[in-house]
Amino acid sequence: MNLAHDEKLRAEVDKFRENVVLQRFPGIDASIFMPSRRIHFTICMLRLHSHSQIDEMKAALKEITTRITATSEYKQVLSANLKGLHILTDDPREVGVIYTTDRSHALQNRMDSLANLIFDILRARNLVSNASLMAQRVLSSDGDHAEVKLHATLMNTKYSKTNRYEDGSRGQRETFDASVLMEKTGQIDFGTVQMKGIQLSCLDEMGDDGYYKSLFQVPLFDPKLSR
What is the number of structural domains in the chain? Predict the structure, then answer.
């Protein structure tokens, strides 16, 4: 889900990056920050290897669109209040990824309900397997229902310029001590962003706006409600 359409969010993310880089925390440089024009939430990752699979995916998304627009929730604006810095590990001294999110139960429930609808249709069309969804950790531990962990990545050491070989390939993921960063800015509020739609994005191509090239978009609420 493209969050970078929001100009205020992009400005807040850019300001965060500049402030952190200026403070020269050990192990942190500008290369590990996600560009503000690519800030997003991920529902799931797909491997589509042919034009026919992409066409099948677009047909699935048309079916998903029909289902979503028929729900009562389609008449309700969907927004996320992106607040705080969060890590994927328990130890802030060894961090590879820092993200922000909205941890409200209302948003989580709505997104899990949406993800259940999406996953059911994709599995029925053999576009994704339960094993793949389990590996991506977007299902409950018993694989019975969706549990999507919404996270907008802000920093990721896999992007680090020091983590690349001469041939361009990446080395082992590095970590850094984020304890002081979390202490100083862990409660940062990036503001509220409307989640207008879900995109089928091509990760190795960029659009004119600097975001991943979108092959199809599913609206999450009536565009007439958008600010």
Answer: 1
